[in-house]
Amino acid sequence: MTSVPDPPAPHAGPAGRGRRGWWWVGAVVVLLVAGGVVLAGVLEHRSWVAAVARYDAQVAEQADAAEESLTRVEAQEVVHPATLAAVVVTGRTLLAASEGQVEDPAVREPLQSALDAADALRENGVERATEERTVDALRRPNPFRPATRPARHVTVVTGISPAPAELDDAASAVAASATTVADAQQQWAFDGLQAAATDGDPVLTESAGLVTDEGTRTELAAALAAARTSLDAGVGGVPVAQSVAERDAVTSATEAVWSDRLARTLELRRQQAKDSGIDCTVQPCVALTFDDGPGVETERLLQVLAEKHVPATFFLVGRNVEARPAVARAAAEAGHLLANHTWDHPQLTTLDDEEVRRELERTQEVITNATGQTPDVLRPPYGDVDDRVRSIATRTGLRVVLWNLDTEDWRTRNTDETRRRAVEGARPGSVVLLHDIHASTIDAVPGIIDDLRAQGYLLVTVDQMAP
Ligand code: NI
User: Fold this and answer.
1) Tens-place pLDDT, residues 51-94
2) Separation of CA 112 and ligand 1 centre (Å)
3) Which residue in 435, 436, 438, 463 is the catalytic one?
4) pLDDT tens sequence across 318-338
5) 104 three-state secondary structure
6) What's the CA gap between 51 and 302, in Å, rounded?
7) What is the crossing angle of helices 214-232 and 240-275, to 10°?
8) Is 169 a catalytic residue?
9) Is 409 a catalytic residue?
């Protein structure tokens, strides 16, 4: 092949070349703009997708948080108040049960305060504490593809009011003070049982051969053995109710032994009287009794009674015996019956057990020491007596004897009036109330004795009187 020269190039002037150049520039610009628009669209879309993803995540997170906290709070609002409620019931029961047992305010009051505080805390029930949480609304700023997501509000339960810790603290406070009360109650029960056993032991020993019914002693021995076993277990060794029951068993068995012993003593005295010709079951008897001495007039009374050969019963006040032991001894030596009229003449029913016991025991002691005669008869001042005082008296070895003819000598302080009331009021079996601390009474006694004898009465001591 031979080479052919190139055809001549078309005519191209400088102006034609310039128009073609601008077209290219325009095309490139258009392409760049189009590309930019597409790129911006893509970026905007990505950002929207990312924003929606964040929005969805927040919504999901809130829902989870709400659910989780609800589960937690539902458990809290059941467990903590229930624990507190149970402790409060226990504390309240204990406080009521220990009334009259645990008296010390320093022990009782903390429990009462803790219970009050728990009540105040529980007064309005348990409420849920909540918190509003929001996921902000979302708006796509693209005018060609508008889109929105709404604002989302979720109520999250964050806890309970009162807080679990508050409820637990209140429960701990009640429980702690309840433990103190329970310990004190145990101590009380132990002390009571020990005191009963301490009282019962000598009664069992000293009553050997002195009772009619050995069964009462067997019962006391059994009650004491049970008490010893419980006492050996120490404070809190047995339930409070058991200690109380055993204490009561010992106390009533002690009382039964003493009752038996006192009845037997009385029976023996009546038999002795009968042997010496005094039998108030067939003879009309009157007992003259003199209360509140020994006093300044008592020696004069003893002379009158000696001259008339009349036995009387003296209800002695312990502190007066302490002041005039020789007069008390003279009364005992003259063959009169000495009896207990308490230490300082209180109304026994107004005193507590320990005080009653002390009134009686101190008087027994001072009379025994002064005269060698231990009373087994008690006249409570003012005739003020109830079952409790009677029971304590029996356990102190004392039988209660009141009166059935009041001369009111202490009120009238009139010799004739005293004599008239004693003589006109007398019946077979009369126990005449007189007071050897008044001169007017001593002055009335010779006439009373003469008048009663003239009416055929036999003058005796109260233990010789028919039952
Ligand atoms: Ni009196």
Assistant:
1) 999 999 999 998 898 899 899 999 998 999 999 999 999 999 99
2) 43
3) 435
4) 999 999 999 999 999 999 999
5) coil
6) 121
7) 150
8) no
9) no
